[in-house]
């Protein structure tokens, strides 16, 4: 039985159906995706620069908490002002009820006054699965050397209440400050919270 399962795993791996999730402390997996304007964007395009990856789904109450309060946009602006690349990624399947087409996603980001460098469409879920992204939001920080140094929640208060933001520790801002200062990230991982990502069944 174990031998059979091993061969099934190998078949799935060869077919692109199994992904090794990114590991903090290891090189971040490269990827290529298309943004909401139809441009091809690769992680390799930003070699030598820190990069934040943010998973998003506008229909999620947890995402609405951080965008409606402008907490996410503030974190984006703080990062981008320091020369950090911020890539917002939507891995929601086209089969899901809350899927948004690229133009709709772009319009929503504009309405929110988002400050991300680009918004990427990951409809087949390959990027999300490669990073092990589970929730919206789910955030990752890649340092200038290409190493993944943070993965987890935006902050320490896993709720949908806007009132919790002020008393929460913003893990992303904290990790960015430490990484940019050349220090080890004091909280390299945390448990992400939010809505589960609705991945494509074909991913």
Strand percentage? 15-25%
What is the fourth-level CATH superfamily? Glutaredoxin
DSSP strand tally: 9
Mass-distribution shape: globular
Number of domains: 1
Q: What's the architecture in CATH terms?
A: 3-Layer(aba) Sandwich
CATH class: Alpha Beta
Placed side by side, the strands forming the largest sheet appear as 2-1-5-4-3-7-8
Counting H and I runs of at least 4 residues, what is the number of helices? Answer: 6
SSE string, helices as H and strands as E: HEEEHHEHEHEEEHE
Structural class: alpha+beta
Strand count, sense and barrel status of the largest sheet are: 7 strands, mixed
Uncertain regions: pLDDT < 50 for 5+ in a row? 1-19
As a percent range, the share of helical residues equals: 25-40%
From the alpha-carbon coordinates, what is the Rg to the nearest angstrom? 17 Å
Query: Kindly, what is the distance between the CA atoms of the first and last residues, rounded to a whole number of angstroms?
Result: 25 Å
Determine the CATH topology. Glutaredoxin
Average pLDDT confidence is 91
